[in-house]
Amino acid sequence: MFEDVLSLLFPESCYACSGALARGEKFICTNCSIKLPYTDFHVHGATEHNPLQRRFWGKVPVRFAFAYLYFVPKGRVQRLLHQLKYKGAQELGEHLGQRYGSLLSDHQYNQHFDVIVPVPLHKYKMRRRGYNQAESFGLGLSQSMNLPSYGHALVRKANTATQTRKNRFDRWKNVEDVFQVPRPEQVRDKHVLLVDDVMTTGATLEACAVVLLAAGAKEVSVVTIAAA
Ligand SMILES: [Zn+2]
Fold it and tell me: Strand runs (DSSP E) across the chain, as ranges?
């Protein structure tokens, strides 16, 4: 009863629309849950019908490419990502990971992967934010897919975004200056599920995949919360 009184006085709000959550709703209200722009890429698997897959063609071999949601500017997905990045909503990342991981497991994708590895933040950014939003999402995936998550398998050395403007040859030369695998035995001969919050060009995921494969990973797949 005390909890009921508390929730009347301080109702928790939906991370996607800021409306009050009803009893039994958690993080995202039912109306938003129905209306979120789901990609359903997992239905297509690794085929030409999966547009994310095509972003990596001719760049780096990626077995599967998944995103839970379409990124729509000013919409629910942008609000979710904003909360996740700037409002410290770490538990929201975990919740989204659990939801998407259950869906991927329902389609037996969990059997393909050996380990989950999040795209790392540079340590200064990590210190400022207190957590890595990609790692929060990865943690939820790891729980619902029953896979280990190695939060430090990849480290970001340079405090810069991947050089997307340089041509590809230049980018490939500098990826190992940006990302490193300090303990290659964590990924050697493994199918790595690489995790990030959002995919725009795919350049950051591409750079991480190159470095993981160079460190001996057997295969790399990628999954994000949203894709532009
Ligand atoms: Zn809502």
Answer: 65-70, 115-118, 155-156, 179-180, 191-199, 219-227
193 CA to middle of ligand 1, Å? 29
How far, in Å, from the CA of 5 to the mean position of ligand 1?
Answer: 22
Q: For residue range 153-168, what is the model confidence (pLDDT) as tens digits?
A: 999 987 655 445 555 5
* 214 CA from centroid of ligand 1 (Å): 43
CB atoms within 10 A of CB 222: 28
- The span from the CA of 60 to the CA of 176, in Å, is 15
Tokens (6 digits) for 182: 């300090």
Under the banding of pLDDT at 50, 70 and 90, the label for residue 173 is low
Kindly state the average pLDDT of the residues 8-32.
87
| C-alpha 200 to ligand 1 mean position (Å) | 25
Query: 21 alpha carbon to ligand 1 midpoint, in Å?
Result: 8
Q: Please tell me the distance between residue 13's alpha carbon and the centre of ligand 1 in angstroms.
A: 8
Could you tell me the distance, in angstroms and rounded to a whole number, from the CA of residue 39 to the centre of ligand 1?
Answer: 19
Residue 145 has pLDDT above 90, yes or no: yes
Q: How far is the CA of 128 from the centre of ligand 1 (A)?
A: 28
Residue 24 CB contacts under 8 Å (≥ 6 apart), including other chains: none
Find tokens 């909360």 and name the residue: 83
Q: Is 87 exposed, middle or buried (0-12, 13-18, 19+ CB in 10 A)?
A: exposed
Measured CA to CA, the distance from residue 19 to residue 38 in angstroms comes to: 21
Q: Is a pLDDT exceeding 90 seen at residue 37? A: yes
Q: What pLDDT, on a 0 to 100 scale, did the predictor assign at position 162?
A: 47
CB count within 10 Å of CB 61 equals: 11
